[in-house]
Amino acid sequence: MPATTDDDNRDSDGGGDGQGVSGETVGVVRIAAQDDAFAPDAPAPAFGINGLHVRGGNLYFTNSQKKTFSRFPISLRGGNVAQAGPIEVLRSANGTDQFDDFAFDSAGRVWAATLPDTLTVFFPPVRGNSMLGQLNALGNPVEFNRPTSAMFGRGGVAQQHTLYVTTQAGQLIAVDTTGIRG
């Protein structure tokens, strides 16, 4: 048996005691799925898989460098999540646009933070895969300066219709989605 050093036995807090930084037990880490659809088509620092959400038995994700919004079915067996079917590309970004993070609203619409400067709104194929539009058209008083993340509020009804968007320019933008139909 090869000799071990302190560096061989370290965990998330570096102590090698099986405890994380705040004292929690560190679990087993494994690859649940791996596919070329997750990887960038260019060397680092290109981004591959980016936004990631589970909804209705599927794992949805964006790949910024490949400009795709995709999903695949997942299964839970013995406490482990695994890919249960093929990856389906649901939408590709237009032109120089790149999907970053995204959020689902209560109607099932996808709100994707889209580089360089928009929010793209669409339904996944379940609802016809129709693109509803992009926010940040001319005349909009708020500029989405390289949006990176999107998340709906979790409080009362008003919060559930408020989409919070972060940007690389240090903005936190609140978007009232109440009047946006599709």
TrEMBL record:
InterPro entries named in the record? 6-blade_b-propeller_TolB-like (IPR011042), Hetero-Diels-Alderase-like (IPR052998), SGL (IPR013658)
Alphabetized Pfam families for the sequence: SGL (PF08450)
Region (Disordered) spans which residues?
A: 1-23
Residue stretches making up the SMP-30/Gluconolactonase/LRE-like region domain: 56-168
**TM region positions:** none
- Gene3D superfamilies attached to this UniProt entry: TolB, C-terminal domain (2.120.10.30)
What is the protein name given in its UniProt record?
A: SMP-30/Gluconolactonase/LRE-like region domain-containing protein
**Taxonomy, superkingdom:** Eukaryota
Matching PANTHER family, A to Z?
NHL REPEAT-CONTAINING PROTEIN, NHL REPEAT-CONTAINING PROTEIN-RELATED
Composition-biased stretches, type Acidic residues, lie in 1-10
